[in-house]
Each structure stands twice: as structure tokens, then as C-alpha cells.
Amino acid sequence: MSDSPETSAAKPTSQKVTLPGDAAVDKLIHDPDPQVLIAVASDARLTEDLALAMLERRDLPPQALEQVMRNSSVARLRKVRLAVVTHPRTPRHVSVPNIRHLYIFELMQIALMPALAADLKRAAEDALLSRVATISSGERFTLAKRASGRVAAALLLDKEERILQAALLNPQMTEMWIVKALRAGTGTELLAPAVCKHAKWVHRLEIKAALLGNRHTPFACVVQIAGELPVRLLRDILRGVRLAPEVKKYLQGMVEKRQI
Fold first, then answer.
1. SS3 label, residue 229
2. Counting runs of H as helices and runs of E as strands, what totals does the chain give?
3. What number of CA atoms fall less than 13 Å from residue 246's CA on the CB side?
4. For residue 187, is it left (φ>0), alpha (ψ between -120 and 50) or beta?
5. CB atoms within 10 A of CB 94
6. Domain spans in the chain, listed from the N-terminal domain onward
7. 236: which residues sit within 8 A by CB, 6+ positions away?
């Protein structure tokens, strides 16, 4: 590409690179020269639409993405911030701090992006989890239904039954998260009875064992589960799980009876 006033103005120098006053910024967002793109990214004439159009390019140099977030004309715009955070070439020292400024459902979206790096998704989940206690019931309900498994798992201990029920139905929910929640020291007053009635989860072996160890599991559910488990597993539970006295006594009696 031959040097033009616009291009030569964007060449690296020891001082801050700027574009000339008559530069066609709308054309330069498509320029192949990385230095031009860096100059465009820092130019005050960059608008939201132009920034978003430029951010659709997967070949942007990392410095250009960094400059977009330093550009006061666009850096605080929600759509621009989200596009920078999710761009595959954004440096981590830019994307991770900016994740904390995104809205709840933007964070949910990031945590579910299959192509996004695992550490960024984890950072989005961390930001969501740090806000769970302060967001509205409606927002928690939506997260319970649609968020990643890790976020939905935190809502298994919600004080509203409709929210934990939604978390149990979340397509990202796994047996591991439910077992972990049932083993929590507090907050399972609603969860244990709900799992006992759940058509899908109550039949999982590890969940049954966790329910037997949860002091909020209704005794009728304890009786049902104990009758379904093999004696060998009941012995393992008696040895390895802290049980309420009445549950322990019942399971011991069940084991002795079935060994005769």
C-alpha cells in the first residue's frame, strides 16, 4: 500500500499517533495497516457505529483493541465494551477488568459463549456470583433458568422456591452441582424437599446419598431412598456421611434387617 497522508500520519513515531483532520475514519476502519487501525481506535471521531463495525474484524491488532477502551468517545458505551471484551484478540489486562462493568445478562451471555476462553467465562461467572445477593428476584429467576451451571448452582440455595426450581431445570445443571449444594452447611431447607420430588434428579445415586446426609430431607424420602439402595452402599453411607441421629438409626436397622 502506498503512503498517503492518512497512512503516513498513522506510522509509528515516538509521539502519540493521530490522523489528519480530513481523514475518512469510516474508510480507515477497513484499512489493512495495523498502525492505521491503532490510530483510528484512538481517534476522537470514532463513533459507536464505526467502533462496532471495526470490532467485527477478527484481525485487529491487540493495541487497537486497547486503544478503543482508552478512547473516551466510545469506551463507556455498553455495546462497544461488550464487543471488546468478547473479541478474541483483546489482551487479558483489557478484557478481564472490563468484565466487571458489564450488565447482568451480558455477563450471562459471556459465560455461555462456547468459543470464548475459559478464563474469561470464569471471570464473567465470578462477576455474576458477586452480584447475586443484590439483584432482583426477576433477574435471579432468569439466571436460574438460563445461566451457566456454576451460576445456576448458586441459586439452588435461593430463598425463593420458584428460583431454585428453575435452577434444577436449567439445561446446564449437573449432578455434581446438586450434590455440592445438598452438602452445604446451611440454606438447604427448600432444596432438599424439592430434590426429593424432582422426577429427574431424585433417581441419581450420588444425589440419593447426599439427600440421606441432609438434615432437611423429609423422613418419608429417607425411607424411600434407603429401600432403593443396595446394602453395600448403605454401609458406605453410614461410615462416610454425617447423618442425623434418627436417620442413622433407621439406616442401621435397615442394614441389619436386610442382612438377615
1. coil
2. 18, 0
3. 9
4. left
5. 18
6. 1-81, 102-173, 182-260
7. none
**C-alpha distance across the termini of the chain, in Å:** 90
What's the whole-model pTM score?
A: 0.83
Give burial (CB, 10 Å; 0-12/13-18/19+) of 87: buried
The owner of cell 449432578 is 175
Q: Nearest 5°: phi and psi at 163?
A: -75, -45
Each residue of 70-109: pLDDT tens digit? 999 999 999 999 999 999 999 999 999 999 999 999 999 9
| pLDDT over threshold 50, residue 37 | yes
- In eight-state DSSP terms, residue 184 is S
**Residue 11's pLDDT band (boundaries 50, 70, 90)?**
very low
Place of cell 459463549: 113
Q: Are 120 and 96 in contact (CB under 8 A)?
A: yes
Backbone φ, ψ for residue 229 (5° rounding): -90, 145
- Residue 232 amino acid letter: R
Taking alpha carbons only, the member of 132, 75, 74 closest to residue 104 is 132
| Residue 225 near residue 212, CB atoms below 8 Å | yes
CA dist., res. 223 & res. 181, Å (int): 21
Let me know: does 206 contact 184? Beta carbons within 8 Å: no
Buried-state track 225-250, b at ≥16 Cβ within 10 A, e below 16:
bbeebeeeebeebbeebebbeebeeb
DSSP letter, residue 16: -
pLDDT grade for 242, boundaries at 50, 70 and 90: confident
